[in-house]
Write a structure and sequence with these properties.
Layout (H helix, E strand, L loop, with lengths): L1 H5 L43 H15 L13 E6 L2 E6 L2 E11 L9 H4 L1 E9 L5 E10 L2 E11 L5 E6 L8 H8 L6 E9 L4 E9 L9 E7 L5 E5 L12 H4 L8 H9 L2 H12 L6
Length: 289
């Protein structure tokens, strides 16, 4: 789970290599393709009775095999059911988890390489031993990574709210808008991350490009995109990526692409250690350290 925090922390770790610079192409966004993320809470979540799920499953078994020896009971050690798009997981008659996956397809602009930019929404819900909801979390999964999205909720064993995080309120751009920019670069491997420096509320996207492994040296390149403006502020190589997330702006000078004075002023005001601590405390109720 530490990977989730690092996607949001002020400083991100990168792998070493060389990069080949390319000119930035202008992208005309004809439509915003943004995933619809449901706001799931303990108050609007409907959980079917275990007895109903067992009866439903046994009915299917009898219709298919007519073999009563294959019937299950509520006391079966481990059970898994699917209903209304959710998977339900039971152990020793108690609900321990729920999950749901929603897949999406890329917009027409990146149809030619859709295998690089597929995105799906995963919902993960865990429970205490008394079957009260412990956590509700949602993630965006892509072929080469994932990051937290939507509303997260953490509750205590009595059902009281401990923490609520609305990830989307910090971001203006969608994953697919960033993917359209990434698709203009000729790399076989493209990974997209996003982050926000809190409490400064500066949100950004990182596009990490990798060339073919057999290339020696392997090509690498990183784009830093200002989420609020949609502009690429830095185009980094192996050396430059070491300085992003630091105050060494003189060394980042030659990597600037479209960095305005207002954005630069915000970046210079950020206390990165304070931002790391802020995010760690925010996620603490979710057992992410």
């Amino acid at each position: 789970m530490k990977k989730i925090v690092f996607a949001l922390l002020a400083s991100l770790m990168f792998i070493n290599c060389n990069a080949q610079r390319k000119p930035v192409k202008k992208i005309n966004h004809r439509k915003k393709y943004k995933m619809e993320i449901p706001n799931i809470t303990k108050d609007n979540l409907e959980i079917p009775k275990l007895s109903d799920l067992v009866n439903q499953e046994n009915k299917k078994v009898l219709e298919k095999t007519n073999d009563s020896s294959k019937l299950i009971s509520e006391s079966t050690k481990k059970l898994q059911f699917n209903k209304n798009g959710f998977d339900y997981f039971y152990e020793n008659g108690k609900l321990v988890g729920m999950g749901k996956a929603i897949g999406t397809i890329p917009p027409p602009q990146i149809k030619s390489r859709e295998e690089l930019f597929e995105q799906r929404l995963n919902t993960d819900i865990s429970f205490y031993s008394n079957e009260k909801i412990r956590m509700i979390r949602q993630f965006s999964y892509t072929p080469q990574g994932y990051f937290p999205i939507g509303n997260w909720y953490a509750y205590d064993e009595a059902g009281n709210l401990l923490q609520h995080i609305d990830h989307e309120k910090h971001f203006k751009m969608s994953y697919y808008e960033v993917a359209q920019i990434a698709d203009t670069y000729d790399y076989p491997s493209i990974t997209i991350f996003r982050g926000v420096y809190l409490p400064y509320n500066f949100s950004y996207w990182i596009v990490d490009f990798k060339g073919f492994p057999e290339e020696q040296p392997q090509r690498r390149e990183w784009l830093i995109i200002n989420d609020k403006t949609g502009k690429i502020i830095y185009n980094l190589d192996e050396t430059g990526r070491q300085y992003y997330g630091t105050h060494e702006f003189d060394k980042l000078e030659k990597y600037k692409v479209d960095l305005d004075n207002e954005t630069l002023k915000v970046l210079k005001s950020i206390d990165y250690e304070k931002s790391n601590e802020y995010v760690e405390n925010m996620y603490r109720p979710f057992n992410i350290k």
